[in-house]
Amino acid sequence: NAGVTQTPKFQVLKTGQSMTLQCAQDMNHEYMSWYRQDPGMGLRLIHYSVGAGITDQGEVPNGYNVSRSTTEDFPLRLLSAAPSQTSVYFCASSYSGPTGEQFFGPGTRLTVL
Amino acid sequence: KQEVTQIPAALSVPEGENLVLNCSFTDSAIYNLQWFRQDPGKGLTSLLLIQSSQREQTSGRLNASLDKSSGRSTLYIAASQPGDSATYLCAVVVDTGNQFYFGTGTSLTVIP
Questions:
Q1: If 0-12 CB within 10 Å is exposed, 13-18 middle and 19+ buried, where does residue B11 land?
Q2: Mean pLDDT of B31-54
Q3: Quick one: pLDDT band at residue B95, thresholds 50, 70, 90?
Q4: Is the model's pLDDT at A60 over the cut of 90?
Q5: A:B CB pairs within 8 Å
Q6: CA distance B67 to B70
């Protein structure tokens, strides 16, 4: 099992550019989620999905889009990058939703200039 | 909104010491609480999960306790080792919610 994988590991964007952060898991988990981690603020939930075709917003969804066409993949799209989106992004998955053990990917460090 | 606080933000101890990390939360209506470890530049690894009906969980040298009524959890690490150096985060899931609320973590350094 590769677990939860994220690509790319690092990315630099200019303000206004768009990009997609990739997340995949091979554990057949229904629940997947995206967090951002900022210094002094802890991890905050951006979007989550309880299964293919079902997504919902978390605490800080503005500026981000998600879709879930398969169980394995949960990409996060930045529509028009802003410096405030400079952060480390983590994808996580779980067999039993937020109430079960969470498996995290290694993260993507994004810098928006 | 649930607020999760971890004190201290940083802790440095000599190898072999027993230590306690603290986590407090404002809304006691939680479903569970999890402790995670994060190594520099890496993702989070789940250490212990405590259901709201439980008082504690143990895994090896780690013991986590939960006092829902007072909104507190502690992570006890016995006989600390340099390999325990990492940031430790706690997170809670509220009864009616579908997400975790994370604390900002305690950065632990164990000095050989």
A1: middle
A2: 92
A3: confident
A4: yes
A5: 58
A6: 6
Is it the case that residue A31 has pLDDT exceeding 90?
yes
* Candidates A33, A40, A100; nearest CB to B104: A40
Q: Judge contact between B48 and B56, C-beta under 8 A.
A: no
Q: Which residues of A touch B49 (CB under 8 A)?
A: 100-101
- Structure confidence at residue B97 (pLDDT): 66
Q: What is residue B94's predicted lDDT score, i.e. its pLDDT?
A: 82
Q: What is the mean pLDDT of chain A?
A: 94
Q: Do A104 and B45 touch (CB under 8 A)?
A: yes
The strand order across the sheet containing B19-25 reads B4-7, B19-25, B72-77, B62-67, B56-59
Q: Return the ∠ at Cα B36 (arms to B21 and A41), rounded to 5°.
A: 80
What is the total residue count of chain B? 112
Shortest Cα distance, chain A CAs vs residue B100, angstroms:
7
For residue B42, list chain A residues with Cβ-Cβ distance below 8 A: 106-107
Contact A42, B103 (CB under 8 A): yes
Rounded average pLDDT over B16-28:
95
Min distance A59 CA to chain B CA atoms (Å): 9
